Structure to design on (90 residues):
């Protein structure tokens, strides 16, 4: 290998490791969006009757968007747990 190829390879490995670390450290807002997406994909589509759960999820999403993730995240986690949807823990 030439020095140029080695240098390019080292740079690519460095960028890949920084990207993996950044993906592991999610912000609370990103986690909130992820949990809401799981709710919408697995629970909301099958929920044809009104039980207030959709409004709870929408309000939790709204609270997260307003910056109050301490209130929104536990609500979304409780909804997913109640509906037996596995979600990533922190």
């Amino acid at each position: 290998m030439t020095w140029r190829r080695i240098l390019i390879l080292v740079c690519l490995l460095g960028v890949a490791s920084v990207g993996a670390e950044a993906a592991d450290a999610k912000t609370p807002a990103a986690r909130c969006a992820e949990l809401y997406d799981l709710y919408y994909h697995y629970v909301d589509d099958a929920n044809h009757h009104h039980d207030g759960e959709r409004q709870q999820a929408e309000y939790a999403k709204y609270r997260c968007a307003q910056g109050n993730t301490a209130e929104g995240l536990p609500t979304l986690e409780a909804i997913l747990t109640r509906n037996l949807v596995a979600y990533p823990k922190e």
User: Anything to note?
Assistant: The chain is about 70% helix and 0% strand. Residues 21 and 50 are 41 Å apart (CA to CA). Residues 27-82 form one domain.
